[in-house]
Amino acid sequence: MKNILAISAGAAVGTYLRYLFNLQTQFTDYPLGTLMENLIGSLLLGLVSGYVAARKPRDWVKAGLGVGVCGSFTTFSTFAADTVGLFLEQNMWVSLFYILITLVGGISLAMAGFLFGEKRGGGVS
Predict the structure, then answer these.
(1) 56 — alpha (psi -120 to 50), left (phi > 0) or beta?
(2) What's the rounded Cα separation, in Å, for the pair 14 and 46?
(3) Which residues of 36-51 are buried (b: 16+ CB within 10 A; e: fewer)?
(4) What pLDDT is stored for residue 53 in this prediction?
(5) Membrane-crossing residues (predicted)?
(6) Per-block average pLDDT, block size 10, for the chain (125 residues)?
(7) Residue 57: left if φ>0, alpha if ψ -120 to 50, beta else—which one?
(8) With contact defined as beta carbons under 8 Å apart, do 105 and 87 qualify?
(9) In the prediction, which pLDDT does 124 show?
(10) DSSP state, residue 68
(11) Rounded CA separation 80/65 (Å)
């Protein structure tokens, strides 16, 4: 139960921070808010992961900071942390393959989903 409460509280913080970043950058043509969220979130999850590895805090602390704050602030931070983990535990080629599949697959599926949703919504025929 502590984990669920910690994740919920952390998610509220991460979501609020994400909203603030987007408010500050909503008038630009470049997705600066998203870029900042992804980069800062990656740094934050790296810091949390390093802290967890070194200090071994209680499970609810790990869940609240990692899954809650970082997970709601950005999902890119998890992708970055997974890539680093693959690089450290496997090898460079495995991590590069993961990057390629994630980026190409994610963008392709986002485009397919957009086109499908647009068609189902009565847009382009």
Answers:
(1) left
(2) 15
(3) bbbebbbebbeebbee
(4) 83
(5) 30-53, 60-81, 93-116
(6) 96 93 77 79 86 87 92 82 86 90 88 85 65
(7) beta
(8) no
(9) 60
(10) I
(11) 16
Task: Please report, for the chain, the start and end positions of each structural domain, with discontinuous segments joined by +.
Answer: 2-75, 90-125
Q: Can you give the pLDDT at residue 22?
A: 81
Instruction: Give the pTM.
Output: 0.69
Joined tokens for residue 61: 């602390």
pLDDT of the residue at 80: 86
Task: Return the amino acid letter for 68.
Answer: G
Q: Which residue carries 């609810």 as its tokens?
A: 60
- Give dist(CA 60, CA 5) in Å, integer: 8
Residue spans of alpha helices (H) in 1-125: 2-25, 32-55, 59-62, 71-73, 76-89, 92-120
What is the rounded CA–CA span in Å between residue 94 and residue 109? Answer: 22
Q: What pLDDT does 123 receive? A: 63
